[in-house]
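Note to self: keep these together.
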Amino acid sequence: MDAQSRGRADEIDPADQWVLNPRTGHYELRLADSAEQQRPRVTAPRRAAAPSAPTAPSPSPSPSVPKPRRGDGPPGRRTGRSRKGAGGGRRKKALVITGGTLAFLLVAGAVGGYLYYDHLNSNLSVTDIAGAGTGGFKKDQAINILVIGTDKRSGAGNEGYGDKDSVGHADTTILFHVAKDRSNATALSIPRDLITNIPSCPTKQPDGSTKTIPPTKGTRFNTSLGQEGRDAGCTMRTVKELTGIEVDHFMMADFNAVKTLSTAVGGVPVCLDKAVNDEEGSHLKLDAGEHRLEGEQALAFVRTRHGFGNNSDLDRIRIQQQFLGSMMREMKSKETLTSPKKFLSLAEAATKSLGVDSGIGSIGKLTDLAGELKGIDTKNITFTTLPVVDNPAEPVGKKATVVVDHALADPLLQMIRGDVSLTEVEKKEQAAKESADADTKAKQDALLQGNKAPAADVRVAVYNGGGPSGSASTTLKWLQITKGVPKASNLGNAPAKVGATQLEYAPNQADQARALAEMMGLSSSAMKMGTADAGAKTPMKLTLGPDFQQPGAPLAPPVPQELPKDVQQAQADKAVCAK
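Structure:
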């Protein structure tokens, strides 16, 4: 019985037999007749155990779930029950939260919910990306995860999908941006046929050495993975060059992920505006209306290019986004969150399908990541696609690739880099908060009109929080030499990056703040006044953001707060019928 099967061995479902022991924090196999046999309990191993020989003919158990043996288990305990302990209760509660909020990653990257089984570590495939990422996400910064689906035909039944001789290209790529305050997220799809540049890429070899793959200009984005031995770190580097967004981690899965995960949750609801009969590619055949898809049908649905829209990869991306949104809603449903059988099947299926970088290469690290995502509601998750146009270098009627549409893509990427939510619900909540801060802003505007301290009295510490390299030291010299501010100091990089340049000061430093704002050309929106007065020798804090260009020059235009109307987007909490 594999991870998605519904069969039972000896009328016992293995998922019902693994019970959390609050004293040890491990899941243990317990059977209904264990009270009579007085046998010691069996603790789930770190690595998947081989199935035990059955005592009676029965279906084969999952290779990752040890076969129940008659008589195993502690005395006097009922099947599927455990006492609530302090450690066990907290852990179980956290895992229920984790499973629902990781629904997006479960499907697109197969990270897996309920990542608390120690033996699942052996299922993970871990890649050393040779410094391609940031080295790890931080609690006070936005998180960017690159979710990659390959077109490699590994696994039984996948011969009809993808490219026959593919080495495993980046067929589906989604940059998942989680806001700094963890209130919202943006899922940016990157078309596989986008023409872009792939930068030089160091890759780790089996012998521990590093091989650098030379850059390639003007090629398909999907070749950033697999081609010439490129690993997921190369795709991460390509995305950074393409979007200006540095990726923290990657998660990668093949075709089996969609099949096993959709089955593990009991199917994913989808809606079709019209009947589909794709005889050319995926062989998907469905009537109009609502369906619940799992296994082969689910994979065919997300792979079809001839069933919807104008039969393009861009239309397939929209279908995949609709499927992911539905999976998220299904995962957060009460039925999934309260089903131990789905928990175990989902965890097994997810981790077997998952490839990650070493920064999140363990169940514990994935659980930490899940904890960062637990507060995001589906209403505040937006799917969108990098805006593109047909490649002008290709003849009319033979368009096969696309290029970035900068008029639409640039403001979209600015908003993601600036950590601006694309979700209408989140924007309304933010607008209410900004309205409450209107009085503070008005006071700051008034403060700019007051007295200014002499330059020699201005005391400020300069940090680089996302500006060009060397900005803090350049600004320090400019202030001291050009503007006569001897009490300026440079403290290097800020503890966290900021979305825009800002000056933090105390009420009794207002005259200094006005003087520095005039020198630097700062507007009132860049000034953040605290509530308590500062000590006589306490400096103000100037943090240079991505809008900083050079000392004395006007700051770059502010990050857009609204998307151009032609940018495609969809909300994860809304069900949409595929057209």
